[in-house]
Design a protein that fits this description.
four-stranded antiparallel β-sheet, about 45% helix, disordered C terminus, binds zinc ion
Length: about 425
């Protein structure tokens, strides 16, 4: 039986700049809403409430009477908003990580439900306010239209934030789609490494470079040198140092997320086009891979692991759900140590190349890993492969990808190159260049 899952995506849509008078109404609305949320959060935290239903049961009437001119559903969504804030704050507190006795309601997005907003066509949004219903024009964007055109359903949940500088409303709109997985006809295997993903598609192993561990290390050393400099001038833990740290961390996070997301999209699209399942290593708790073990600092090691291994897998899973691509997990043990043709041990020298102890052929570590993941997904382990594998893995110099005489080399592709591609079809030029180089 194939699974069906519901996929949601949030899209940002901005209003046109509003006239001063209209914008002021939204500023008033934001003020009242913030006040409601602040009071509700305080109450919830004091009474250890994390559930919306309980908070609403105990506080709705009072909150409702505070601003009788406000449409009643704002009291309702403010309870939802506050319950969620209280929930995450109490969780932090339990873990001893809350810095203040109460959560600060710093930035506010007003939560909306089906009574409070509706889309009128593609360019108008109508909002319920304390001054009646108001319509604002929104700027159409490519992102929004893509979801509309691809059969995603607009949900009734939305949030709106005020951009005081430009006098715009920023809407966070949620789309939903039911996706069912197809039955795979083929396999695309992915071997995740710290700085590259090896991907086996149609008998070719592509090595898509991500440099994720280098990105992590780069930011780590930058932060460290900044910290040393600022600590000398301002003392440790100073405010200017914290501010720069935060900016750097945000940049690092955004940059890595973009790399992972693009990579996942590329791999998933290739799999979907072939109606193939994606085969991934089942990751354990501890990083098993080569370079990462040598890093002494446990926090740094964790960060590299999260970004390069867990993060890439999570991005692939997420994207795969959207396209209905099945994902299969296999045991990662010894995937790069056993020859996929002979089932014998591969002896590695100092680098990523090894020699099969039985056939004597040379292998690149990532190519071995990709083929072994494929064999495991098919239900064999190379040595005891079922019959359909025997045909695939011809020992006597057979099909090119696994013939013992072939060079078992991946096709490396730099991040700057693949990040611009929509598909791997674009690689043929690149391959020619590699060969002639
Ligand atoms: Zn061999």
């Amino acid at each position: 039986m194939r699974g069906t899952s519901e996929v949601t995506r949030t899209v940002v849509v901005r209003s046109v700049p509003l006239p001063r008078r209209a914008f002021r109404i939204f500023v008033e609305l934001e003020g009242m809403y913030r006040n409601l949320v602040e009071q509700l959060v305080l109450y919830a935290v004091n009474n250890n409430i994390t559930k919306f239903t309980r908070l609403k049961a105990e506080r709705y009437r009072d909150v409702r009477s505070l601003y009788p001119q406000l449409p009643s559903h704002y009291a309702y969504t403010a309870c939802q908003d506050a319950a969620e804030r209280a929930h995450s704050f109490l969780k932090l507190k339990r873990m001893g990580r809350a810095r203040k006795p109460y959560p600060e309601v710093r930035s506010v997005s007003i939560w909306l439900d089906d009574h409070l907003w509706r889309a009128e066509g593609l360019t108008l949004v109508s909002l319920a306010t304390h001054r009646g219903r108001l319509r604002v024009s929104v700027e159409l964007n490519k992102h929004f239209l893509r979801y509309v055109n691809r059969g995603w359903r607009l949900t009734t949940e939305a949030k709106v934030k005020l951009d005081h500088k430009e006098r715009r409303l920023i809407f966070y709109i949620t789309f939903k789609k039911e996706v069912s997985e197809y039955k795979p006809k083929d396999y695309v295997t992915v071997d995740v490494n710290e700085d590259a993903e090896a991907v086996l598609i149609d008998g070719i192993v592509y090595l898509l470079e991500t440099n994720l561990s280098r990105v992590t290390l780069g930011y780590y050393y930058r932060r460290k040198s900044i910290q040393e400099r600022y600590d000398r001038i301002y003392g440790s833990g100073s405010r200017p140092a914290r501010r720069i740290f935060k900016r750097l961390s945000n940049k690092e996070r955004t940059f890595k997320r973009e790399i992972r997301w693009k990579l996942a999209a590329l791999i998933v699209r290739e799999a979907a086009r072939r109606q193939a399942a994606i085969v991934l290593e089942r990751l354990g708790r501890e990083p098993v891979n080569h370079m990462i073990e040598r890093i002494k600092n446990p926090q740094l090691r964790h960060r590299i692991y999260q970004a390069a291994f867990k993060g890439v897998q999570a991005a692939i899973e997420e994207k795969a759900r959207e396209y209905g691509v099945p994902v299969i997990y296999v045991d990662p043990r010894n995937t790069s140590k056993i020859c996929p043709i002979h089932g014998a041990e591969i002896v590695y020298g100092g680098n990523r190349h090894g020699v099969c102890s039985k056939g004597g052929e040379t292998w690149h570590r990532d190519v071995v890993a990709c083929y072994n993941l494929l064999l495991r997904a098919l239900g064999g382990d190379g040595g005891h492969a079922p019959s359909r594998l025997r045909a695939f893995v011809a020992v006597d110099g057979g099909p090119v990808p696994l013939g013992p005489t072939a060079a078992h080399e991946p096709t490396p592709i730099a991040r700057g190159a693949w990040a611009r591609w929509k598909s791997l079809g674009a690689t043929s030029d690149h391959k020619l260049m590699r060969v002639s180089a």
